[in-house]
Amino acid sequence: MSHIDFLKVAIEEAMNGLNEGGIPIGSVIVHGNQVIGKGHNKRIQCGSSILHGEMDALENAGRLKASVYNECTLYTTLSPCPMCTGAILLYKIPRIVIGENTNFMGSEKLLKDNGVEVVVLNDEDCIKMMADFIREKPEIWNEDIGE
Question: Among residues 54, 100, 108, 145, which one has the fewest Cβ atoms lying within 10 Å of its Cβ?
């Protein structure tokens, strides 16, 4: 499978979140060309302060050995915030593929400065999905990660 194929799974997760009334950000963790964890932002649905898409995917992957994380790629529909970046660095995930960073530029520089390979796809579907959400629900966006 390609970066696009795995990003499509992350987009499906983002749409699940949107359909649940939440923020449309999805993420998947891939090891050996297989999805081992996927998730989406559940801050609204669960009343959580930390369940961003990347955090949910890590949680759903379960407890793994460091050697597994060291061979993974994390896919996310939106550039990761400082909290999610911290988790990526903590678990030494070597590669992240980002759907878009037009609507929000996360901590990509911190990732790169710590040796993480960062690939930004600038996917039109990701850009539109997030722009539509920010325009339609600015109060929810601004509650968490917005400006």
Answer: 108
